[in-house]
Structures are given as structure tokens and as C-alpha cells.
Amino acid sequence: MSSDDEASSFIYNKEMTTNINKYDRLHMVTWNVATAEPPADVSSLLQLDVQAAADLYVIGLQEVNATPVRFISDLMVEDSWSHALMDTLALRGFVKITSVRMQGLLLLVFAKQIHVPYIRKIQTTYTRTGIFGYWGNKGGVSVRFSFYGHMVCFLNCHLAAHMNYALERVDELEYILEAQDFDLSDTTNILDHKVVFCFGDLNFRIADHGLHFIRSSINSGRLNLLWSRDQLTMMKMKEPFLQEFEEGQLNFKPTYKFDRNSETYDSSGKKRKPAWTDRILWRIKPKAPAPEDDDDDERASASADDDLDEYPLLVTQDKYTSDMSYGVSDHKPVIATFSLELRKCFDTPLVYISPLGVWSADQDAHLTYTVQEDFMSSTWDWIGLYRAGFKSASDYEAFVWVRGDELPEINEVIQVRASEAFVSLCWVERVFGADGLCQVTSA
């Protein structure tokens, strides 16, 4: 566990701070919702009333209702939690970039519309660890993407429960980190990414201390008396891979286990001991040691480190807390906010779309766009019409395929004819480019 001074992670030389030219805010939430429906108001969870608004929201939920009937229905339409979050964030100009679900595990990523064209290489995956890896009630789901050229990965986990399974939790987490892989050769594994956020119901408990001591320490505000016996803290002292992850100080009350709709710890006959089960960690990719010979792999690693120096990224945790006001679950949500200072690897969308202006819906529209040098076109590219305030990429009103003869060469200006459709976004697995709003009229 790091001190306040250690809550910032650097992957660049301090003399290079003048090169940083972009500042963004990341808001993260982890919450075991215990199959509950979302509360009527999630604005406190998202801290929408703060002056420094977020640029990215990453929300990881565990134990979303996954009964067979409910899970199948959620495959057809968005689940109730996704709806609640999308409805709230769309009003603030956020778009759901992607999501991934494995039974009760759900991970959602939202971004301000202005950032959408600069989010690329999106990919999701999952790993089961329940019932010897055959069942997805436990495990991890992840989303990775490039944000202005910086590869980041978010891993939402739900690990094994109960006091005596600390070693099993460590083994599960290590297995998830090793098992998940992605398509790009330079970021095949989770730990290849420049920044990794690992969070969720990690299920680590407070060892050794009895129920009375734990509760009295909480009630008296002496949380520091419990830190040393927190199982995750203890395991970090033994496990090298955990030592690469950082975490803010646990200055909030343990978030498990509560009587529902209250701030009272478990009063049932089981009287479970309170614990910090719900955590948010992050890891900055360490530099590889200097190569001792001309091995190709070592040269490639050194080249990657040079890239880190040229395009630095600084992650600073601004807040690490819980929200005790929500009572729908026996867990309380945990919230972390981060400042991301980075030097952009690029500042131009892959596709530039010329503004259309006013368009009559009774006539064909002609859209003009150009592409950047590193744009990889596909016959699956399509152009969609979206209403202002759309919530996700799936909210298009209409779309047209980009025909094979319309696939552009580099810097070639292309016109696309669309009947009863207007492009607001050019999309495949991510947004390539976006134009401004157009006015659609009837003749």
C-alpha cells in the first residue's frame, strides 16, 4: 500500500515533464451489486457535481443479475445497469465505447464524444476461474484500447470468496493476468500495456483480528490498526507480481458486509467480519533492463522503452473512497479518480469527415472523407446516422456500408452517397472519425 507521496506513478524522466501536453481525468467505480437493480439516481456514484469533470468513465460491476432468463434477455437488449449509466452519462456528452460481460461480471467504458475518434484498437476478453475454470461466476473481464496512442487495459475481477482462500485469490489473479491475450503483437498480454488498472471484488479479508476489534477500530476511526492484516497488503509483501501494482491508502471504511439499505455491518447470525474486498489497483509498465547483447527481443524491448520516453504518461490518483449512501447491495461501491497527463502520440483522427451542414432527408446525401496513412480499411466499414445525444455505437438510426470501390487510398478524397442516412461517425471496431452535428430537414 503506498503513501500519499507514492500515489503517483512515473514512466518518464522527470526532466521531460515539459513535453506533456494533455491532461485528462479518469473516473473508476467497482461495485458488487449482489444481483440488485440499479438505484434510481447514480449521479453520486459518478460524482457528476464535481467541478473537474471526468473524460473517461470505467465501471466494473460484479454479481449483476445473471439468472438464466435474465441473462438471455440481457443478450438481446442492454441490461438495466448499462441503461441507467448510459442514460445518465449521455446527458453529459458521454458515449459508451464498449462493454464486456461474463455472467455477473460487467465492465463498461464511456468517453466524452470529443475523445472518441482518438480511441482505437479496442478489444475485450474474459477468463473463467469458477469450478476449475469452467464456470464464469468468478474470473475477470477486460477491455483494452489505445488512448491517443497510449495502450491501456482495464481488468474487472471477481475472485474466490471466504477468509481462508487468500492464496487461491492470488493464484486466480495471476492466472487471469497470464491467460488473457490480445491480437496486437506489441501488447499480446495484459501486462504488456503501458498502464493496467486491476479492480473489482478481489475478496481479500482482514486476517487474525476478531470481529469486536475490527468493528471498534472502524467505529473509532482508527483504520490504520487494520491495514497490516489486510490480506492483499500481506500478499503484496510475498508476491513479486503484486508488488508492481500500486494502490491508494485505505482511508475509507471496509465496504463489506452490510445489511442492505443501511450503513450497519452484517447483523445476521453469521456476523461476517468487515473487509476491504473491493479494490482499485494500477500498474505502470516497468522499463526492461538494458540489453547485454544483440538479441532481437531485447532490442525490441529497448525500442519500446525509447517510445515510452518520447511519449510519456503520468498517472496520479486524486481520490480513493467509497460511497456509503448506496444501500441496494451488501457491498458499498468504491470510487477512484485519476489524472492522466500524457503526450499525445497522434492528434489527428484516422478519418477526416467534411461537415455536411444542412441535408434534406428526402434527398441523397453525399459525404466526403479522407483517411490517414495508417488507416486499415475493410469491407466491413460502415457509415451511420446518429441522433444528437446518442448513448453508444449501437444507437444508430440508419447506416450504409462503404462499398469496395469506395475504400480510399491514402489522402484520397472519397465521396459516399447515402440515401436517407447521414454520417455522424465512421465506425468499425472503433470510431475512426466524426463530424459535427448536421441539420436534417424535410423537403
From TrEMBL:
Organism superkingdom: Eukaryota
GO molecular function annotation: inositol bisphosphate phosphatase activity; phosphatidylinositol-3,4,5-trisphosphate 5-phosphatase activity; phosphatidylinositol-4,5-bisphosphate 5-phosphatase activity
GO cellular component: endoplasmic reticulum; plasma membrane; ruffle
Pfam families: Exo_endo_phos2 (PF22669), SKICH (PF17751)
Cited InterPro entries: Endo/exonu/phosph_ase_sf, IP5, IPPc, SKICH
GO biological process: negative regulation of glycogen biosynthetic process; negative regulation of insulin receptor signaling pathway; negative regulation of phosphatidylinositol 3-kinase/protein kinase B signal transduction; phosphatidylinositol dephosphorylation
Domain Inositol polyphosphate-related phosphatase as annotated: residue spans: 22-346
SUPFAM superfamilies xrefs: DNase I-like (SSF56219)
PANTHER family: INOSITOL 5-PHOSPHATASE, INOSITOL POLYPHOSPHATE 5-PHOSPHATASE K ISOFORM X3
Assigned protein family: Belongs to the inositol 1,4,5-trisphosphate 5-phosphatase type II family.
Protein name per UniProt: Inositol polyphosphate-related phosphatase domain-containing protein
Organism expressing this protein natively: Mola mola
